[in-house]
Every structure is written in C-alpha cells, then in structure tokens.
Design a protein that fits this description.
Blueprint: E1 2-3, E2 10-11, E3 14-17, H1 32-47, E4 52-54, H2 63-74, E5 83-88, E6 90-91, E7 103-104, H3 108-122, E8 127-132, H4 141-153, E9 157-163, H5 167-174, E10 181-187, H6 194-201, H7 215-221, E11 225-229, H8 246-262, H9 266-275, E12 282-285, H10 290-297, H11 306-317
Parallel strand pairs: 3-4, 3-12, 4-5, 5-8, 8-9, 9-10, 10-11, 11-12
Antiparallel strand pairs: 1-2, 6-7
The structure holds NADP nicotinamide-adenine-dinucleotide phosphate (NAP).
C-alpha cells in the first residue's frame, strides 16, 4: 500500500482497470456472463490486496460502472475500503444528434453531466478521483475550474487528475485550478516505453526524437502519480505463440528468463518492471482472466535489480543504448 501524494488515500500499487468488465461496447443489456466474471475478478482483486478500481463513463457504454456497482454491493464491501476512479471528457459520435462527431469535451456542462451520470451508475455518493480522459483542444481552463470546485465543494468528487496529458497541458490547467492534479494516466509498458526513453534520446541522432516535453520528470517533480495504462501491451509481448514482431519476441524471452528465476510468470515481471521505476508509478491492469490477474499480482512484491530492469528495457527499445 502507498499513500497517494496530495491525498488521504492508501492505495495498492496495482489498479484494476474496468474497461472491459461490462461486456460489449454497445447498448445491449449486461449479460449474466459479464456479471459472473466481474464477481470473480473483483473478488480476486480484493483477495490480492487491490483496492483501487479504474473506470470511465464510456467503458462498455456505461455498463462497466453499472456492473461494478452491483458487484461491490453484493460483496458487501464498505465504500471507504475501495478507491473508485472514473473519467470523463470523451464523447461518442451520434449523440445527442445523429451527425454529432466523435469528440472530446471538457466544458462545464459536460463535466457536470458526466459525473452525475457516473455517480448514478456507480450507485455511490462520491467518486474518489475524477480524471479528464484525453486532452480537449477546445479546453477552457476556467470552465474546468468551475466544475471541479463545485464537484469538490459538494463532496461529489474528492480528488482530480488527468489522463494522456503532457507537461504543458497539465501546467495550463493547474494554473487555473484551486485543487491539485494528483494523477496522470498514461500509456506505458516495455515496448511503449517513450516516457522512459525520452530522457535517453534527447539530443541524440541515434533514435527518432520523442517529444514528451519531460512529462515524466514533471510528474515526479510535482508528485503527480503516473498510472501506467496497458502495462501488458494488451498481451502483445506475452502471448508466447503469436508475436507481431521480433522486438515482442525478444521482450518475451527476457521476461521469461527473469520470471523463471523469481518463480513467477512473465506477466508479473512486466508489471514489476513498471513498479521498479523510481517515479513510483501505479499499473492499471485490464485482464479479464482470473488466473492471469492472480499471476500479475505477484509482480507487486518483486523488486527488480537495476540489471534486470535494463535487460528488459533494452529488449523493448530494440536497439543499443547510446
Ligand atoms: N486512460 C486511457 O486513455 C486508457 C486507455 C486504455 C486503457 N485504460 C485503462 O487501463 C486498463 C488496462 O488497459 P489494457 O486492457 O489496454 O491493458 P493491459 O492490461 O496491458 O492488457 C489487457 C489485455 O491484454 C490481454 N492479455 C494480457 N496478457 C495476455 C497474455 N499473456 N496472452 C494473451 N493476452 C493477454 C488481456 O486478455 P485477457 O482479458 O484474456 O487476459 C486483455 O485483453 C483498462 O482497463 C483501463 O482501465 C486507460
């Protein structure tokens, strides 16, 4: 457990990502399979000391939040024992009008509408952490500040953060907010490693320049917890039979060798690799397979050596360090 900076929350380092627990991404009803599988997944998560659950208003078109709320009540878990995070700001095409495009929306009205709808689906009085899902080019920080203040003052949202935001986008928002941005959810794994690679390729002709504006260092400096999404690369470098490319196969071979030494599976080492980073990141795992989830959880107690970390990093970079 870690105390999340800027908060009173004691959290597991592994977050369970609820993106797919609602079943299909359409307007169909929640199936019995989705209910039963979620019951098993949430119970397994809790048994393995995961107390943090990540949602978004859009996941399975609201069904992920809905099925989750039924499960934690059925399991009779006290609300204060779990951390519920959700996100807003992505809008589907075709709503409210048939010609409405896919878009991002950080307007005051949409944030307020979305949070109230999530609270209803989650059947709770408050959300622990609300994230803005993807940067909206039309953002008006004053409107975001107004929404955040009202949500905070009314007790509907305790803490706030962002997702997929770079350093300057965070600074712009924070400049107008009276609450701190406590978390930034970003894609990060052994192959999608730009956050860590940027500092190495800066001012170097060997690799393509990566423009991340020092977002990782900025988050470290300001105690904004990075939540790494897709920590398993959606299985790309773990599925031992079907690798999409040579790099994924090399990553798997490294993970397997290190996993065997620690008596765990490669998935556990992929998560341990993220947790070993000194930024004290969290890892948002999205498996819907109960056995895989149990295996992954073993990664949170493995502290990789510097040598092990670099073997995996080098395999994921796919080229020599400078
Ligand atoms: N903020 C954002 O923009 C954003 C974007 C995407 C996701 N997220 C969050 O991050 C969470 C995790 O995302 P994710 O699902 O993309 O990440 P992930 O944990 O890297 O990938 C999970 C997927 O990989 C598959 N997988 C894992 N290990 C495998 C293996 N050994 N062999 C075959 N398949 C394997 C899983 O299949 P099984 O289910 O069969 O295990 C599942 O489909 C989401 O639930 C969501 O909460 C956030």
């Amino acid at each position: 457990m870690v105390k999340l900076p800027h908060t009173n929350l004691d959290s597991s380092r592994i977050i369970y990502g609820c993106m797919n627990i609602g079943g299909s991404w359409d307007d169909s009803k929640i199936s019995n399979d989705a209910i039963n599988n979620t019951l098993e997944l949430v119970s397994t998560a809790l048994e393995n000391k995961i107390n943090f659950f990540d949602h978004a208003d859009i996941y399975c078109r609201g069904k992920s939040e809905e099925v989750f709320s039924n499960i934690w009540r059925e399991l009779d878990i006290k609300r204060e024992k779990i951390i519920i995070q959700t996100k807003c700001g992505i809008r589907f095409p075709g709503f409210p009008n048939s010609d409405s495009p896919q878009r991002f929306d950080f307007s005051y009205d949409h944030i307020m509408y979305s949070v109230d709808a999530s609270l209803k689906r989650l059947k709770t009085d408050y959300i622990d952490i609300l994230l803005l899902h993807r940067p909206d080019p039309l953002v008006e920080p004053v409107e975001v500040a107004k929404a955040f203040n009202e949500l905070n003052d009314s007790g509907r949202v305790k803490y706030f953060g962002i997702s997929n935001h770079n350093r300057f986008q965070i600074e712009l928002l924070q400049n107008f907010l009276s609450v701190p941005l406590i978390a930034n959810q970003l894609e990060f794994n052994i192959v999608h490693n730009y956050l860590a690679n940027e500092g190495i390729t800066f001012n170097n002709s060997q690799s393509q320049m990566i423009h991340g504006y020092g977002t990782l260092e900025y988050c470290r400096l300001n105690d904004i917890t990075i939540q790494a999404w897709s920590p398993l690369g959606k299985g790309k470098f773990l599925n031992g039979e079907n690798f999409p490319d040579e790099t994924s196969k090399n990553v798997f071979d490294q993970l397997k060798a290190i996993a065997d030494n620690h008596n765990v599976t490669p998935e556990a080492i992929a998560v341990a690799w993220i947790l070993r980073h000194p930024a004290k990141m969290q890892s948002v795992v999205g498996t819907t397979n109960v056995e895989r989830l149990k295996n992954i959880c073993k990664g949170s107690s493995i502290n990789l050596t510097r040598e092990e970390w670099y073997k995996i990093f080098n395999a994921g970079r796919g080229e020599r360090l400078p």
